Structure to design on (338 residues):
């Protein structure tokens, strides 16, 4: 089998994988089953946690034609019984004679499928387009490594670093285009998190509202953390769907509760207290700062005291990109060294 052909089939499997959902507790995986005469007999991709794995979808379509065929899978077929059974056994039982996969499974519970297939007499080749496959599941792999959801902190400030005026009023520091951009980014996450302080002060809805009033494909979970009560009249209850109240002040505990609920990519819009708690605990993975060319001269910063007393202790971040949005600037940065 030529490497070029294997890569071409793997590209098709990667296209299928990309149709899967993110954020999700599971990775995005695609599978193509090809008969010895070069005919595609089955295709599938993983539709998210709790649904059949990509290989199972493709095997169902292939039925008897899987016998003697080659399966191209973007992730090493699993060896474990989780929400679904081991794909390595299903491939071997269906009589697939060769399995080509891209990325080894970084999840230690599921890894080992390659050896299992090999032991069952199936020819196995790994590492074909491994970097491309890893690329589409980069955020997923980081959540597996960290054992917690990723956290993106969003802040809006004036040029002089103020997020609220001296009287506490804080709405509309940035312009409409920047606010629309926030909604687009919120839509790429599976939870929006604020503290009870922000909830009581700003009464946010925490929903995704698309430009022009277009319906959002999916609304992130609305989550509020803190020990104060969430008033039943709060606007966060206006939209359909659940509001999760995380009754803790501990960011790690809040993330554990979200993780158990299947959340993997959190959009943090809390006020200065919550921001300081997450930053202080090293639990911020991405920062989006919207900076308006405006001055307040007094008022609160976006983050409370981080305990830094000297410039030698300054917390540096690596710049990812800077974009002008309407009359404001958006800076994306990540903690140095990530
Ligand atoms: C595969 N094919 O399409 C996917 C795999 O809880 P489960 O049973 O869905 O298992 C989830 C784990 O299986 C997930 O963490 C990852 O290691 C692997 N995902 N494996 O063979 C697939 N989605
Ligand atoms: Zn599987």
């Amino acid at each position: 089998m030529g490497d070029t052909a294997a890569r071409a089939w793997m590209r098709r499997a990667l296209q299928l994988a990309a149709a899967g959902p993110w954020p999700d507790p599971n990775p995005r995986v695609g599978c193509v089953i090809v008969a010895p005469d070069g005919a595609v007999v089955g295709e599938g991709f993983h539709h998210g946690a709790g649904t059949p794995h990509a290989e199972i979808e493709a095997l169902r379509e292939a039925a008897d034609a899987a016998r003697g065929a080659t399966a191209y899978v973007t992730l090493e077929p699993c060896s474990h019984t989780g929400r679904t059974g081991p794909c390595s056994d299903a491939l071997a039982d269906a009589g697939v004679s060769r399995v080509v996969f891209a990325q080894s499974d970084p999840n230690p519970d599921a890894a080992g499928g390659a050896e299992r297939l090999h032991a069952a007499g199936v020819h196995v080749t790994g590492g074909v387009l491994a970097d491309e496959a890893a690329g589409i599941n980069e955020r997923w792999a980081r959540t597996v490594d960290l054992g917690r959801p990723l956290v993106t902190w969003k802040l809006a400030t004036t040029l002089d670093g103020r997020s609220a005026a001296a009287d506490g009023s804080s709405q509309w520091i940035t312009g409409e285009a920047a606010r629309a951009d926030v909604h687009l980014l919120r839509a790429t996450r599976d939870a929006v998190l604020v503290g009870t302080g922000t909830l009581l002060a700003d009464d946010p809805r925490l929903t995704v509202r698309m430009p022009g009033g277009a319906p959002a494909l999916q609304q992130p979970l609305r989550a509020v953390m803190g020990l104060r009560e969430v008033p039943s009249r709060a606007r966060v209850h206006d939209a359909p769907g659940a509001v999760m109240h995380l009754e803790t002040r501990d960011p790690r505990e809040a993330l554990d509760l979200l993780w158990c609920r299947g959340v993997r990519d959190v959009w943090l819009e809390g006020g200065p207290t919550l921001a300081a708690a997450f930053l202080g605990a090293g639990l911020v993975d991405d920062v989006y700062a919207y900076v308006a060319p405006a001055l307040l001269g007094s008022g609160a910063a976006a983050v409370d005291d981080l305990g830094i007393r000297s410039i030698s202790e300054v917390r540096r971040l690596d710049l990812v990109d800077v974009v002008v949005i309407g009359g404001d600037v958006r800076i994306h940065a990540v903690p140095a060294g990530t």
Residues 26-27, 29, 46, 49, 53-55, 75, 77-78, 82-84, 87, 105, 107, 110 surround AOF (ligand 1) (CB under 6 Å).
